[in-house]
Amino acid sequence: QLQLVESGGGLVQPGGSLRLSCAASGFTLDYYSIGWFRQAPGKEREGVSCISRSGGSTNYVDSVKGRFTISRDNAKNTVYLQMNSLKPEDTAVYYCAAQYFCSGPIRGSWGQGTQVTVSS
Known about the structure:
The protein is mostly beta strands. Helix content is 0%, strand content 48%.
């Protein structure tokens, strides 16, 4: 079973930081690339970042490049998203999903998501 659980969201002021976690349940996480996605109210879900199986390759959407860092600890079966210099437009529900070669999310691998709110 492919099942991921997101955590670490919360309320933060502009310029602040949060660290999100994506933990695997029911499978070995290091078999997959893992992507982070987000969805704000009234907007489409967008890809934010993805990391390869080994962690050697990463990519980011232009709007977060230089502020967000994706990493993984396969021994802990967990992927992280460090978010710095947060902006109000980063407010969204953040999800992670399993992938092959960062080609797109595997259907049904989403967790419940974690809310990130950036507000003064």
